[in-house]
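A quick aside before the break. I want you to see a complete sequence-to-structure record at least once, exactly as it would be stored in a machine-readable document. Don't worry about memorizing anything.
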Amino acid sequence: MLTALPAALGQPSRTATAPAWWRDAVIYQVYVRSFLDSTGDGIGDLAGVRAGLPYLRKLGVDGIWLSPFYPSPQHDHGYDVADYRDVDPVYGDLAEFDLLMADARRLGLKLLLDIVPNHCSSEHPWFGEALAAGPGSAARTRFHFADGRGPDGAEPPNNWRAMFGGPAWNRITEADGTPGQWYLHLFTPQQPDLNWRNPEVGDSFEQVLRFWLDRGVDGFRIDVAAGLFKHPELPDSADPAADERSRDSVNPLAWNQPEVHEVWRRWRSVCEEYTARDGNERLLVGEVSVPTAREHAEYVRPDELHQAFFFDLLSAPWDADAFRTTITEAIRDIAGTGSTVTWVLNNHDQVRTVTRYAGEPGVEASGLGAARARAAALLMLALPGAAYVYQGEELGLPEVLDLPDDVLTDPIFHRTGSRKRIRDGCRVPLPWSGHASPFGFSQGAAGARPWLPQPEWFAEHATDRALADTRSFWHLYREGLQLRRSLPQLGEGSLRWLESPPQVLAMVRGDGLICAVNFGTEPVAAPVAGTPLLSSGPCADGVLPGATAAWWTGDCPTP
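That is the input. The structure line, written in tokens, reads:
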């Protein structure tokens, strides 16, 4: 028998006057390059996104976040931006963006853009100016240029490592042909870090925000939101090996510096200005990778970012106690700021949930992984706050693990020579219909070859098949989203844990809704008698099978 724990965890309720649509919104992440190709060139584009909007409206999400589509040499597929105020021709043009914006508005979908303020492309005009201007020039102060150490400056200015592998510094050849200064890049040499201590950088990005806000966007997802400022003296790292390609131990000298909070206060002020004009609250959601929920909370104070992705749930092991601790700390520390927790299980940088939860690599292991991924989806949608869903998760797509080396595009692979942590496998273009590649992904010409090859087994996960099968991932997500919107207990509000058997997590939402997840493999007694309102797998009366989540309404145990 389940009994209630004494403590309840809550989040601030909406007020009648606050236009806070984002507090419990569910946003769908569109990786534009892999969503839908309207031209037949094998690369997704903005017209393809526009064609897919009715599908997303039917799924039931509140809005979409678009990966970068700005002009870019595509060394990191758009996260190396050459022009922040235009559209790369491979994705369309500004007129096509305006049509997309108008259709999203007509369908009641919010639209967020991905903005990349930590670094730009080495083909950005500013970087060209810096190379031509020479040491000591004003143009070089927009970046981190420094003289090298050792004889003839042949060694990097410090020992920092790039998160994508290798040294974080690259030496240039000066205009006269001599070896010159070094510049900082925390990711790849084609992505020089901007120097946010130069006020010109902040002024320029304010104009970027205004450019897109004037076109009607509802907000921004901010890449590398904790990494804009570096220690002013650029000292050596105590453990450079730990800084390389690690989200859990990022270089504290290049991350989470106190000055970054002034940037978000300025950006929040810009958003508030636009909100005051029409009452539609513009959203800032940050990619904030910091060690603790308490540090995370500092970014979502009332005058800074509205939200920041909470990655700890994504990285938590499949274990009831780990999930309970992670959720409890997030609600305690983040919701206490007045924001809401922003839950994620996957994104364009992570192994897909079906594969991650399988316990062993390979599509053959996806039966267990799929069951756990379905249960995790129901748990996430039952939690108080907002949620982000990565494209293809609603189809139950596993990771593509066997892409040949010669098709891999991830700079991590090309800089390290290792397939560990590469991201191409979760970015393979979506299957929409049919039994062979391109599975309806390329609309403009029959048989167009997608930019990453799709495996034959993608046919099992195609959208047309998912819509026709009421037991599919797609229908689970849709029903969960419909209930989340219709039931007052879900979305924002309180959470109360229930005592439960080992490897079972059970909670009460609001008044009269229970969500329970069996993290184990053996069936357990269900916390509520009767048929579940929604379950991630077959759920007989009175029994909760292993790797299954369910929602019930009815009488709940009282403290």
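Two observations worth writing down. Confidence is low (pLDDT under 50) at residues 1-7, 11-19. The chain has 14 helices and 19 strands. We'll return to this after the break.
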